[in-house]
Write a structure and sequence with these properties.
heterodimer; A: about 425 residues; alpha+beta; OB fold (Dihydrolipoamide Acetyltransferase, E2P); Dihydrolipoamide Transferase; Chloramphenicol Acetyltransferase; six-stranded mixed β-sheet; five-stranded antiparallel β-sheet; elongated; B: about 450 residues; alpha/beta; FAD/NAD(P)-binding domain; Enolase-like, domain 1; 3 domains; five-stranded mixed barrel; 13 helices; 23 strands; about 25% strand
């Protein structure tokens, strides 16, 4: 008896290979023509592959999970010659009969394409079919077109219902009762898929500007990010004491002015961080004054207003000015010069903060310091775990100009100031 | 090459294609419809509509021509038919309807491209229009290319051998018309031209006319053909045209006959249009000559859909339209399926024949124990007042629960009864529902009620 190879057919849309997700047959099984052999999955759909022949399965093309190229062997079938010829009798079989090449046959195969959720829905329905009245299960249910449509929408197979109407006709009430009585986890109506529609949103204005600048920054700058953990227990205590002491008299201090102040102090030892790189002309402009960009989320997108001459401000001055420029940016009243001329930038996501961020440098600057969330964690100190308030600084540097070692030293310097906050007050 | 993108591109602007397009447009999908000839396809331009216009004109002419006196004393002398005006009138109806389709498409926001489509792949077609070539890429491709008249190998189209399309656009009534094929197209047109004055001969290979319909239904039509002096040769095959093109050699019962005619209509069926537009590139699973589809009108390739005649029998406009609406809704994310209980079929012969749902034979073959009820128009008041009491209505129901499985009818004007009959089958009516629905008197619809009563043995007027 002849042996035919069933190839994995082209399952459409230029798919080159498909993964076997389920075998419906095993070696030695007798299969009928059109019986499903396997389910294969492409990145889009699950497709059931029916057998083009009746016969006995000799071997399978792979285990479940294997990826097969289109055209490779799915199974080999020993043809049941008699039954096959009967099955093919009505068709105009080629003169070669069973000797037709598998290559010629594979693309002719009836391929039933199902969306994945359809396959799942069918499984769901299959589960609930058990225990139904088998007498009615095979016949087409009697129901008006409106009821059939409603059932389809609700994911109900009307064969599951016993109609209360004359001749077993399914009424609106029967369907409503069935839907109400349906257990939530069984045969759950699928969410009606949304209309497969794409809305085009033109990128304009500030968003376009941000897009250009971000792309330009990541395209040109060789970013590297560096994350360090800071023990801010003392700093946070100090911050709360100061806020309590000067309540109503001075602006409330957040962490940000402390970070800015620590950074300004660290920059005295690391002046190479405070500047801009004119990469067209390959010149670094190092600045003596520290103009700190404060990354600020506004309704229309990210803006970076500038805290000018941070080196000349104390904590409260910084706090007040940061609040002022951020509010101005958010309200849209920031002047053009308020948004230009920063030499280094600080970014904070406020309450969100995250554990680690990889900030994008505000080109043409050289560094950006990111503030992460403050959290209480157990730290090992002097032979025991103690609860400490910690916070990460996630910073990015332009590796074209700044090396990792310098960056690490710079951050360590900031860390030392933040962990000994008295130094910030005395301006050491 | 001009490029454009769409959600849905539809090849073919017939009933299947244009309904898909209108509904898709209504549902907010960017839709492109490509039609190489005229919007409305076979149905509006060269099929259903022009043939019905011709049938109406032929009937009106025939009713008063020939100096026949009606039973109620109408006697019209000197009847003349200006066939050129008949044709112009027919064309004006076609024109109005195709313009209507164009208007609906425009209202639905559909881009209509006049040109010939070529499928490149499952998402791309190239359209050769009059002045430019454009490439259209779409997420969904809908095939709605329809069907064309089947040719007879022995008697190919050309010269005096014409298709139904050609016959409907003749400028003069042929003196003698030979029709190969006694299916509904051959009979509708054969009867119409007989009424217009042609001497008509019909050649059918089977042993009776309308071989796909049961003999009870076709018998009144056969009688009418005899009255109209239409010669019907059954068990006959068209062999070849004589070299002068004026006669057709027909083999019947082992003998060869010569049929002289001015025109030879070949109406032996229709075949799906599945070639000439790159369909083979998709390598779709076929069902014989037709494109195989699921009940969602999916082909074997994702997001390639097919509706209408190229998907199989019955090749009827209303099936295509219903499929088109289903496809548009599925593409728009709704859940829909094409799963009617009944697709009505009508022969606009004289008398008309309709069938909805299962015939008695089909019902029995499906394993049902059936009850039949029939009512003849001979006992229907309205039919008598119309001087045409030929025919009957027959209801097929299940014996156990009286569910109406189907209905057939033959008679004058009964094409309009299909709406009630289809509604009954589609709604899952039982005989008692038909009995309990009061029909207006006097109408032919009363026959439905009476036939249902008859099925239960309670007929009032029979």
């Amino acid at each position: 008896m002849p042996v035919e190879m069933v190839k994995l057919p082209d399952v459409g849309e230029g798919v080159a290979e498909a993964e076997i997700v389920e075998w419906h047959v095993a070696v030695g099984d007798t299969v009928e023509e059109e019986q499903v052999l396997a389910a294969v999955m492409t990145d889009k759909v699950t497709v059931e592959i029916p057998s083009p022949f009746a016969g006995v399965i000799l071997d399978l093309g792979g285990e479940v999970g294997a990826r097969l190229a289109v055209g490779s062997a799915l199974v080999r079938i020993k043809i049941d010659a008699e039954r096959d010829s009967v099955a093919k009798g009505s068709e105009a079989a080629g003169p070669n009969g069973h000797a037709r090449s598998a290559a010629a046959i594979a693309p002719q195969m009836a391929v039933t394409v199902n969306r994945r959720d359809d396959v799942q829905a069918r499984k769901d329905r299959g589960n609930t079919d058990v225990g139904l009245k088998t007498a009615t299960a095979r016949e087409r249910p009697i129901a008006s077109p409106a009821i059939r449509a409603r059932a389809r929408e609700a994911g109900v197979d009307l064969r599951q219902l016993a109609g209360s109407g004359t001749a077993g006709r399914i009424t609106q009430q029967d369907l409503a009762d069935f839907i109400d009585a349906r257990p939530v986890n069984v045969s759950r109506p699928r969410q009606t898929p949304r209309a497969d529609r794409v809305t085009q949103i033109k990128v304009t204005g500030l968003r376009r500007k941000i897009a250009e600048r971000m792309a330009e920054s990541t395209r040109r700058i060789a970013h590297f990010s560096y994350v360090e953990e800071i023990d801010v227990t003392a700093l946070d205590e100090l911050r709360q004491q100061l806020n309590a002491k000067f309540i109503d008299r001075r602006p409330k201090l957040t962490v940000l002015p402390f970070v800015v102040t620590a950074m300004v102090l660290a920059l005295r030892d690391f002046p190479q961080m405070n500047g801009t790189y004119d990469d067209e002309n390959e010149v670094v402009h190092r600045h003596s004054a520290v103009h700190v960009g404060i990354a600020t989320q506004t309704a229309s997108g990210l803006m970076v207003p500038v805290l000018r001459h941070a080196e000349a401000r104390d904590l409260w001055d910084c706090a007040e000015e940061i609040k002022g420029i951020a509010d101005a940016a958010r309200s849209g009243s920031a002047a053009r010069e308020d948004l230009n001329g920063s030499t280094i930038t600080v970014t904070s996501l406020g309450d969100l903060g995250g554990i680690v961020t990889t900030p994008v440098i505000n080109r043409p600057e050289l560094a950006i310091i990111g503030v992460n969330r403050m959290t209480i964690r157990p730290l090992w100190q002097q032979g025991q775990f103690v609860p400490r308030t910690t916070m990460n600084l996630s910073s990015s540097f332009d590796h074209r100009i700044i090396d990792g070692y310098e960056a690490a030293q710079f951050i360590r310097c900031i860390k030392e100031f933040l962990e000994a906050p008295a130094l910030l007050l005395v301006g050491a | 090459m001009k490029e454009s993108a769409a959600d849905v591109v539809i090849i073919g602007g017939g009933p299947g294609g244009y309904v898909t397009a209108i509904r898709a447009g209504q549902l907010g999908l960017r839709t492109v419809l490509v039609e190489r000839a005229a919007l409305g396809g076979t149905c509006l331009n060269i099929g259903c509509i022009p043939s019905k216009a011709l049938i109406h004109a032929a009937e009106a002419f025939h009713g008063v021509s020939g100096g026949r006196e009606t039973p109620f004393g109408l006697n019209v002398q000197q009847v003349a038919l200006d066939f050129a005006r008949t044709v112009a009138w027919k064309d004006s109806i076609v024109d109005r309807l195709t313009k209507g389709v164009a208007g609906l498409l425009k209202k639905g926001g559909v881009s209509v491209v006049a040109g010939t489509a070529e499928i490149i792949d499952g998402k791309t077609i190239v359209v050769a229009a009059a002045d430019e070539t454009m490439r259209v890429r779409a997420r969904h491709l809908v095939l709605a290319t329809g069907s064309r008249p089947l040719a007879l190998e022995a008697v190919p189209f050309g010269g005096n051998v014409i298709s139904s399309t050609d016959l409907l656009s003749l400028k003069d009534i042929p003196g003698r018309l030979a029709v190969a094929g006694a299916g509904y197209i051959g009979l509708e047109l054969g009867i119409a031209f007989a009424k217009l004055g042609s001497r008509v001969t019909i050649i059918e290979a089977a042993d009776r006319i309308l071989p796909l319909w049961d003999a009870d239904l076709t018998r009144p039509v056969a009688r009418r053909l005899a009255q109209l002096k239409v010669e019907v040769l059954t068990g006959a095959r068209a062999k070849k045209l004589t070299s002068d093109g004026g006669s057709l050699l027909v083999e019947q019962h082992g003998e060869t006959r010569k049929i002289d005619a001015d025109k030879f209509l070949v109406a032996v069926g229709r075949e799906p249009c599945t070639s000439g537009f790159g369909l083979e590139r998709l390598d779709l699973t076929m069902d014989g000559k037709f494109v195989k589809i699921s009940d969602r009108c999916e082909t074997s390739m994702s997001n390639v859909w097919a509706v209408g005649d190229l998907t199989g029998e019955p090749m009827l406009a209303h099936r295509a339209m219903a499929q088109g609406a289903v496809v548009a809704e599925i593409i728009a994310g709704k859940r829909a399926a094409f799963s009617p209980m009944a697709i009505p079929a009508v022969c606009f012969t004289d008398p008309e024949i309709v069938s909805v749902g299962l015939t008695p034979e089909q019902a029995k073959a499906a394993g049902h124990d059936v009850k039949l009820g029939a009512f003849r128009f001979a006992a229907n008041g309205r039919a008598l007042t119309q001087i045409d009491d030929t025919g009957f209505v027959r209801i097929v129901a299940r014996a156990d629960n009286h569910l109406v499985l189907g209905a057939q009818a033959v008679g004058n004007g009964i094409s309009e009864l299909t709406s009630s009959l289809a509604l009954a089958v589609e709604m899952g009516a039982v005989l008692e529902d038909l009995i309990g629905t009061i029909q207006a008197h006097p109408t032919r619809g009363e026959a439905i009620q009476e036939a249902a009563l008859g099925a239960l043995g309670y007929a009032l007027h029979a």
